[in-house]
Specification:
The complex is a heterodimer. By secondary structure, chain A is mainly alpha-helical. Chain A has one domain. Chain A contains 8 helices and no strands. Chain B is mostly helical. Chain B has 11 helices and no strands. Chain B has helices spanning 2-33, 43-52, 64-83, 100-120, 124-155, 160-166, 172-175, 177-193, 221-247, 258-285, 294-313. In chain B, helix 5 (124-155) packs antiparallel against helix 8 (177-193), helix 5 packs parallel to helix 11 (294-313) and helix 8 (177-193) packs antiparallel against helix 9 (221-247). The relative contact order of chain B is 0.16. Classes of the chains: A mainly alpha, B mainly alpha. The A-B interface holds A 3, 7-8, 10-11, 13-15, 17-18, 21-22, 24-25, 98-99, 102-103, 105-106, 109-110, 113, 117, 128-129, 132-133 and B 171-172, 174-181, 184, 295-297, 299-300, 302-304, 306-307, 310-311, 314, 316.
């Protein structure tokens, strides 16, 4: 039973890393957000699978909170607050082109795996794959945060990093204190809310949310 | 040995007789999804019969390459059929004559002759299609090679009959992250190589936007029929490699009994139909990529395949 759950978890991990690469390669903001929803659901699936065998209601709670906040509330908030960015603008802009970003992402994945090897040996954990994949996805999320120019795709990169950190976290500490679950339940949607509000204001006054452009923001005469 | 050769012939018959049907089903399903009625699923057979019965026109300035290319395109998928497990999970007569790399090289022969013939015909669209197909081919090749590397890391072999056993013994291999990554990478290459939608629109009639189709514009009559037929068979052969060797090695005949073979034919057909359903879903939900975005699509496939290899090497 436990072996089957761990095997299914390995499958989920493979799909998780694919969703991370897919987020790197998509050019549409809407599609990027949908992949983020899928990624969050995969994180929740991993939490459910790891939480089922030696039963841990902490992991189940984490899965439920993830589904509620990242797959439902955050997409709803973003669509509500910055519809112009998500539905009307089709393509996002990047500081470097997609193939280069992909190559860097590949290098970061490799680096993430290599670093995580030490963590895997150090920690006594359920699923070593979670740590490696989580670490690799964390670095790729950081890359997304760096190369995406507009606010919403940057926010998605940040949230992808968050997902990755939790993917690694659930394998290291299956019995999370409740406070951590509450933190993501309130903190992350709130973060998305604030960034989306800022993006909304920037979009209204400039017609774009390119963060680099904020440096030259001036008072309208 | 006689049985083994007979089974090889049965595999060829399976690919030869059913490949137009699968093409017809794919076309019909796509039309149904788009709320149209679409042609009958037997339309490819009628098209082939019509083309085989027609006269052929060949440019006076074309060389022997133009005349021989259709035969290469037609025969090569059948040769590959001899090497791969189509219906049985035990090796047949030609099983060890070539591995998956060999099969890839053999498929490349038909691609090369078809490309040369398209340029040889003198039609400007042919040369354009040829250069575009080569571009897609060059970008797809590294992905295939890395996928094969990964396969050989997993199974210590690239003989398809040996590889397919490794995904299910032990079953943990089937769920390994590297397996999923490898499948996605190969599926993306499958779409690119068989001219399906995110890369090429198989039902497009606009010559300037064609990638694969425009190479066949100059062929008529029997040559056109052979090329069409070869295209249907290439799709089925690549699907079988994807399904029987890489994805789901279940449902194949374990011995040569007629009942087992009949069941295997039915199950393999069901698997191909399932793949067709997935392709219909992909084709109905994605628009064709602009020519210079194809490199991004295949770069993504490459990154996925390299990630699969790294994941496998590090035993994650």
């Amino acid at each position: 039973m436990t072996a089957l759950l761990l095997e299914l978890n390995a499958l989920v991990l493979g799909l998780f890393i694919i969703s991370t690469i897919a987020m790197t390669v998509t050019r549409q903001i809407g599609a990027c957000m949908q992949i983020f929803i899928v990624q969050s659901l995969l994180l929740a699936a991993s939490a459910f699978l790891l939480g089922a065998a030696p039963f841990s209601w902490h992991l189940f709670a984490l899965g439920c909170v993830t589904v509620a906040s990242k797959a439902v509330i955050i997409p709803w908030l973003l669509r509500r607050l910055v519809p112009g960015e998500i539905d009307r603008r089709r393509e996002l802009s990047q500081a470097i082109d997609v193939p280069t970003t992909l190559l860097i992402a590949l290098g970061l994945t490799f680096a993430g795996y290599a670093f995580a090897q030490h963590l895997v040996h150090a920690a006594d954990n359920l699923s070593p794959g979670n740590i490696s994949m989580g670490f690799a996805a964390l670095l790729v999320g950081l890359l997304l945060l760096a190369v995406r120019i507009e606010a919403v795709p940057q926010l998605l990169g940040l949230l992808a990093m968050e997902n990755a950190a939790f993917l690694a976290g659930i394998a290291i500490a299956p019995d999370f204190p409740l406070i951590a679950e509450l933190a993501i339940a309130f903190d992350v949607p709130l973060l998305a809310f604030i960034v989306a509000l800022l993006a909304r204001i920037a979009y209204r006054s400039m017609g774009t949310t390119q963060v680099g452009g904020l440096a030259s923001l001036k008072e309208r005469q | 040995m006689t049985q083994s050769i007979a089974l090889n012939l049965l595999q060829i018959a399976f690919v030869l007789l059913l490949s137009p049907l699968f093409a017809g089903i794919l076309a019909r399903c796509k039309e149904l999804v788009q709320s149209k009625r679409g042609p009958s699923i037997f339309q490819p057979y009628r098209d082939l019969r019509k083309l085989f019965g027609k006269d052929e026109r060949i440019s006076e300035d074309s060389s022997w390459i133009f005349r021989s290319a259709p035969y290469f395109v037609f025969i090569v998928p059948l040769i590959v059929t001899l090497l791969i497990p189509v219906l049985t999970d035990f090796p047949l007569f030609f099983a060890f004559a070539g591995d998956m790399v060999g099969a890839g090289f053999i498929l490349a022969i038909s691609g090369m002759f078809f490309t040369l013939a398209a340029i040889d015909g003198g039609n400007p669209y042919g040369a354009m299609g040829a250069s575009r197909t080569r571009m897609v081919g060059f970008l797809a090749e590294p992905v295939i090679i890395i996928v094969l590397f990964t396969v050989s890391f997993v199974a210590n072999s690239t003989i398809p009959y040996i590889v397919q056993q490794h995904w299910v013994h032990p079953i943990a291999n089937f769920f390994a992250p590297s397996h999923v990554l490898l499948l996605i990478a190969f599926f993306m290459v499958l779409l690119a190589e068989t001219g399906r939608l995110p890369v090429d629109n198989p039902s497009g009639h606009f010559e300037l936007a064609m990638v694969d189709e425009s190479k066949a514009l100059e062929f008529s009559g029997r040559s056109a029929a052979l090329i069409k037929y070869g295209g249907y068979m290439k799709f089925v052969v690549l699907s079988i490699v994807f399904l029987n060797v890489l994805t789901t090695p279940w449902g194949l005949a374990t011995n040569g009994s007629p009942a087992g073979l009949a069941l295997a034919i039915a199950l393999v057909a069901v698997k191909i139909l399932a793949l067709i359903a997935v392709i219909v879903a992909v084709e109905s939900s994605y628009a064709k990529l602009r020519l210079f975005r194809i490199s991004e699509f295949l770069a993504a496939a490459f990154v996925v395949s390299v990630t699969a290899m790294i994941t496998e090497i590090l035993h994650l």
